Inverse folding.
């Protein structure tokens, strides 16, 4: 669990704790002009492919869904549409992110969204003993076993 008593727990962290899922809360220095996963990876001194970003998309048939993917990859909208049961998909507009998920850009976690959304993790997450994902605020990441996180959010794995 979180080891530094000075780190304020997020709602996402409370949810994982309630479920008994082990994790660490890892702070990093936020640069408001650079919210990219590459900046976070540099701050954590970890490979970019272990820092996962949480992207919220809208499909033409099934509405909102989430893709969690390594920081060194771009979302393939055709693949995203296929895995979510849609014909097409697009990133949601930034102004929709907070009202739909409860999170802001750079602090969107796959844990604890306003309502559960279908979630899909890139298969590369399973290559690592642990990965990093947003803990629900800018400046704080979860260090967590990917299998634990995938099971907790009920996510699928892609590509299929």
């Amino acid at each position: 669990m979180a080891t530094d008593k000075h780190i304020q727990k997020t709602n996402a962290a409370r949810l994982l704790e309630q479920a008994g899922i082990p994790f660490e809360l890892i702070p990093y220095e936020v640069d408001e002009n650079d919210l990219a996963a590459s900046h976070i990876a540099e701050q954590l001194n970890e490979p970019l492919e272990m820092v996962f970003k949480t992207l919220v998309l809208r499909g033409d048939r099934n509405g909102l869904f989430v893709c969690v993917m390594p920081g060194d990859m771009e979302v393939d909208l055709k693949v995203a549409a296929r895995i979510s049961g849609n014909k097409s998909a697009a990133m949601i507009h930034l102004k929709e992110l907070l009202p739909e998920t409860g999170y802001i850009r750079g602090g969107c976690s796959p844990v604890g969204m306003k309502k559960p959304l279908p979630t899909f993790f890139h298969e590369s997450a399973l290559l690592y003993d642990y990965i990093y994902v947003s803990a629900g605020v800018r400046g704080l990441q979860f260090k967590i076993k990917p299998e634990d996180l995938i099971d907790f959010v009920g996510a699928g794995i892609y590509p299929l």
